[in-house]
Amino acid sequence: DTAVSQTPKYLVTQMGNDKSIKCEQNLGHDTMYWYKQDSKKFLKIMFSYNNKELIINETVPNRFSPKSPDKAHLNLHINSLELGDSAVYFCASSPDSQGYGYTFGSGTRLTVV
Amino acid sequence: KQEVTQIPAALSVPEGENLVLNCSFTDSAIYNLQWFRQDPGKGLTSLLLIQSSQREQTSGRLNASLDKSSGRSTLYIAASQPGDSATYLCAVFNAGGTSYGKLTFGQGTILTVHP
Q1: Which of A29, A34, B64, B81 supports an S-S bond with B48, CB 3.0-4.6 Å?
Q2: pLDDT at residue number B98
Q3: What secondary structure does DSSP assign to A60-82, as a single string?
Q4: With a cut of 70, which residues of chain B have pLDDT below it?
Q5: What is the pLDDT of residue B72?
Q6: Nearest-CA residue of chain A relative to B105?
Q7: What residues form DSSP beta bridges with A31?
Q8: Which of B42, B100, B107 is facing A97, going by the closest CB pair?
Q9: Contact by Cβ (8 Å): B61, B78
Q10: Which of A61, A6, A2 is nearest to A33 (CA)?
Q11: Nearest to A85 by CA among A17, A4, A33
């Protein structure tokens, strides 16, 4: 059983399109995250939800909108995709927001052409 | 703003060598420091977590130390094996004060252990 699963694993799309990435965790964790890993390999947090409530919202273009229908799911919707959005997006979860017990998904490689 | 730097960016060693990966951070008010391993096409795997009050943690052939006052951590890998080849990421968790804390990552050290 995959603890944190993301779909799709690869996504190739044209500029201007709208796309979504889905994430689900079966660990019973309260907190979920979206991270972006750019071409220089830096992992940067984008959003965090704790029990469906948005608790971290970094400086991210408002074309990115997270949605957490329940605490086991955190989806990421991206409008009007741009070339610079190309990156690997990782979903993660942790038992709570106290900074330990992180489990990461295997990533979604987004390529905007 | 917390910044995490890892040195070296890449390291290639023959099997059996002991090696040290370095991590430094600018804001010493951390809650914990964590080391992760990232394999190509896969997510991150947690290796070690050191609480701010601790000096080191050990797991098998891995030993991580923390000097919070100087803003440094090292990951020591003993008797390296080809299976250790991966990217190693250092991350620090800062408590948020009036807001929620977050994990800040370094850019990683790409380790290659050749037979």
Answers
A1: B64
A2: 59
A3: --TTEEEEEEETTEEEEEE-S--
A4: 96-99
A5: 97
A6: A43
A7: A50, A94
A8: B100
A9: yes
A10: A6
A11: A17
Chain A residues whose CB is inside 8 A of the B87 CB are 41
- Written as one letter, the residue type at B22 is N
B60 vs A110: CA distance, rounded Å: 36
Evaluated on CA atoms A20, A25, A26, A28, the torsion sign reads negative
Nearest in space to B93 (alpha carbons), one of B32, B41, B47, B49: B32
Task: Return d(Cα B36, Cα B52) in angstroms, integer.
Answer: 17
What's the one-letter identity of residue A102? Y
Interface test with B, best of A100, A103, A109 (most B CBs within 10 A): A100
Say whether residue A45 is in contact with chain B using an 8 A CB cutoff.
yes
Looking at residue A26, what DSSP letter applies? -
Please give the structure tokens belonging to residue B50: 């050191």
Burial of B23 (0-12, 13-18, 19+ CB in 10 A): buried
Interface check for A72 against chain B (CB to CB < 8 A): the answer is no
List, for chain A, all residue ranges whose pLDDT scores fall below the cut of 50: none
Structure tokens at B112: 């290659």
Q: For tokens 């979504």, name the residue.
A: A20
